[in-house]
Every structure is written in C-alpha cells, then in structure tokens.
Amino acid sequence: MVSIQSVLERVRVNLGHVATFYYEEVSNIAVWWLWNIPFQFLQIFFSLLLFKYFAEAFGGSSPLYGGNFMAYIISGLLINTYMDASMEVYYHSIAALYHGRMGVGGVHLSRRDFLHLAGISPYVFIFARVSWRHLMETLTFALYLLAGVLFFGFHVSAGVDWGVVFLIVLLSVAACSGIGLVSASMYFLAGAYRGVEPIVWFVRLFVPLVSGIYVPRELLPRELAMVGGILPQTYAVGAMRKVLLGGAVLSDVVAELGVLVLEALVLIPVGVVFLRYSLSLERKRATMF
Amino acid sequence: MSGDAVFAEGLTRVYRILGAGFYDPGSLYDVFGSRFVYEVFMRAVVRKRDVYALSGVSLRVGEGEFVCVLGPNGSGKTTLIKILAGIIPPSGGRAEVMGYDVVRERDMAVRQVTYIPSLVAAGAWAQAKLTVRQNLRIMSRLFGARFEDVLDFAGRFGLGDVLDRPFGSLSTGQQARVGLLIGLLRRSPVYLLDEPTMGLSPEVARMLRGYLLDLNRRLGVTVLYATHHPLEAQEVASRVIIMDRGRVITDGSVGELVRSSGVEESIRLEAYRVYFDLGGLLREFGPSYVEVRPLRPEVGEYEAVLGVRDSDEVLPRLLNELISRGARVSRLSVRRASLEDAYLYYVGSARGERYG
Asked: Which chain B residues are Cβ-neighbours of A106 within 8 angstroms?
C-alpha cells in the first residue's frame, strides 16, 4: 500500500528534478535570450506586415473576416502558437531523451540511460520539457499581441473574459497534446528518427488551410471543411475569435470547448498508450537499427 | 537471491537487425519517394537476422571483489555491463545485483550501481554549450550529490582550470574526465565500469585505478571493470573473466590464468627481409599463440610475439630457420609470461587458433 506521504515525497523530489531541467533550459538560452527576443519580434512583425499588404492587394475587407482582416489573422495565430507547440514538443522531448542512442545495443548512451542511472523517470524529463516549451510560447503569444496592438490595430473586445481565454488555451493544448503524444510514439514505432514524423506532418498540411486560421471556413469546399471539422485547431480558433473579438462569454463557446474536451479525452489516452508501447518496444529492441 | 554482489546465469542478448545484402537505400528509396513508406516496407518485408551480443554468459562476483572483464572489441563486455546496470534488458537468462533482479526489480537494482561508461558512450550526457561548472551543477542536482564535493573532486581530476569553459571546447581527454566525474557522482556498493580509461592520459588513468582500488580496499566496494587492456587488468584485478564473441572463455586469478594457459615465456622479435609467411613459420614451433604485425612490409619488416613454454628450446631453432630463409632479426626480447600472454592464448584458442 502506497502512503500519501510517500506520494507527496515523490512529487516533491520530481518537482526538484523539473526545476533542475528548467535550470538547464535557462542556462542553454540565457546567453542569447535577450539577444534573440528583438529578432523574434521583428520576425513576427514582418510576417504580420506581409499579411497586411496581402489583404490590401487581394481583398481583406471581406465580411467573412469580420471586417478586420488583421484581427482575424492575429487572433488565429495567437492560439495556434500554443497548439503547434503542443503537437511537436513531445516528439522533440523524445528525440532529446534518446539523442546519442545509436547502433546495435545502444553503444552510444543517451540521456534516457543517464536518467535511468540517476533513478529519474523519463516522464519527469518529458513533463519538464513540455511545460517549459509552453511557458516559452507564452512569450511568443505576448509578442504577437504586442505587435498586433502597437502596429496593426488589433484590439481585444472590451471586458474580454481572460479566464475563458485561459480555458480555451488549456483545452486546445490538451487536445493537441494528444496528437503530440501519438506523434512522439512514431519516433520508435515508425522509425521517425530517421526522417519526417508523419502524424504532425500530416496535420500541419491541413491546419493552415482548413482550421480557419487564415482562410474563413465558409470559403472551403465541403470536403475540406469536413476535414477541418475533426481538427482541434478549428474549434480553438473559432472560440478564441468569439471571445477576443466578439466579447463572447463561456456560455457562447460551450460547443467549441465541448469538442476540445472530447478530443482531449480521446486523444490523450490513445497517445499515452502509443507512447508507452513505443518506449517499451525501444527497451526490448535496445537498438535503433 | 544469490548472495553475490553480481550474479548472472545464462545471460543472452540477441538483436534482430535488417539483413545484410538487401538494404539498398539508394534505389528502393527512390521508388518509394518517402522515407516513412520506405521504412514501413523495410521493417515489414525485409529479411532480418539475429546477432548474438551475449550467448549464455554466467558469472559471479562476490562482495568486495575487484574483477576485470577482459576481451577484444565486440566480445560482449559492454553489453554485459549494460545489462547489469539495467540499461538494456537481456533476451534470456537472469542477472542480479546485490540480490535484486535487474529486470523484475530494476529500480532497486540500479540504486546499487555506479556505472561509468567509456568516453565514446558518455558523450551525450554533458551539454556542449554549457560550461563544465553548469554541467556539473545539473548532474549533481540530479544525482543528489553535494556540489561542493563535486567541485573538489573536479580539482583532483585536473579540471579546476576548465570549469568555466564550454564542455564542447574541451579536449578529448578533458571531456573524458568530465564524463568520468559525472559517473562517479553516485556512491554505491557496486561499481560497473566500461573501459573508463579510454581517452584519459596515463597519469589520470592511473589515478582513477588508484581511486577504485582505494574504494575497494577501504570501503569494500565491489568493482566489475571491463577493459581490453590485459596490463590494466593485471594491475588492478583480483580475478579476471576473459570473454570473446559473447561468451565467457575462462575465469580465474591472474596467476591461475597464466599457469593454465601453458605460456611460460613470451618472445618478441622484429625482423626484416622477411619475404615469406612469417606467421606460418612461427606456428610450426608449436607456440601457445602467435601475433604478427607488419612494420614496413615493403621491405619485409615485421614484428612477432609468440608464447612458448621454454624459450631456450625454441629460440635457437627459430633463429636458424629465419636466417636460413634470408631474414635478419633486428630486435629480440624474452620475458616471463603475463596476463597478456594468457589472454592472447585463450582468445586465440577460442577462435580455433591453437598451435601448441
């Protein structure tokens, strides 16, 4: 029988390890972080500038964009920042965990082996990486917001419920994390370490086109609109626009949030099962060839 | 539970890899045009073959023993050490460390172990962009070691001057020392070392061996030390296990192994104007083992080592034969047999290369 005290102690120890992994992340980026932020801001600025002139050239004043093309685009990009990170960070965490493991018998050891020798679960490392990445995406979120407000006339609706915004972010991250976990399992299941990871590659192929981030879904043919109907990005973007631009409250976005909850409840367990199976397969094979 | 510090019975490790001769990434990959599809096809269809890294290895190491596992490259030493450290599971057999099964009680078994990999294997542990100090701070936190103790240890390993340099900028030897230091952060009853002196300068390698011997004698730590250098094993081990091609060939103290090999003396010679099969000639004298190495084959210059029972009986005939064939001996020495000779004998015998 496991006692509550031992569980709490284990949580405390693991949080200490997470803090150490955060220290490692900070140490890795500290040298160039302050240097990098202006460049990141400039990159965001110029990508938005491109959209602005694109809209002027090709009719961004369509009512399908709600009368404000830049607000339409920025609100979609804001939430997609998190969702894109959620999809890819698990795979990159697995890649970081097994980096260096090559050859028959894993002649070259990896961080995974090191964590085993230190008695640290690889899931602690994955949690640290994933949570850190989402913290960093908050910075990107802030930069998009800043650029939008300062230069592109982006104004959120008066009295926007930031609690609902946070809930949308949370649920969209959860749903996309399910995709991310399945993606991470492909590292070993499909040998994706040798090349392209197919799951996220496939999802990313459709997201910009069918989820409403750039193109109003009303413009799409029925088949493409149907594809958009199964992606969590579609509902997250829709809900975010309603809240940020339309002043919607929780009851107005219940449908979208409900779909996100459903997708999270399905995709996360599937992703966990896939990932655990792939890691057990790696352990049994002990080779990446 | 065996009662030994390290116990292995019938350990086997098999890898199933894509068969040779069918792997044609160039043309087949072009056909599929997609890495993913290509990989799925290769894994589903292509013939695979089994590679036995370990084949029925059984051994015991008592508590407080200092045992070396000696074998050539590819003999299975690394695989054995990694199975005992719980890094990879065996395909068959079982192993225990301090009474804990390395598969079923993996978490408890790993707590009994300090594992030091070779330089080649340890490279992924430290981060190249971070300084040595930063890397050590991270590792000491993860291993629960006091950072002040770690820094003190770093000074003893000659790393005091490089603590604030990026790990990636260090020389090979310095990186090896950092990897070693990281590995030694944990204190455990059993130390598993896999060619730990690779990349180390002689004085640091000696210091490491001295440190391990001190731990072994003073604290009764059990050491299982894998190496392919017989002289290194002879320096530290109370017992030596010789492996080749995934199997244990023999096991005993240095004296026992030398005596049982039948090699009493080792003859080393350098000769030139050798325009015949020197190895074949030497084998006619019935040595326990023969090793021939070309020095300058264009002028017929070779070096040979052979293990014999009695050099007085072999040398006169050997020299006569060499001279009669037109060769000249430029260097000749005879020494008493050491572990190196026993090792060459046993490995050669296991491969069917027995002449005596």
From this structure: 82, 87-88
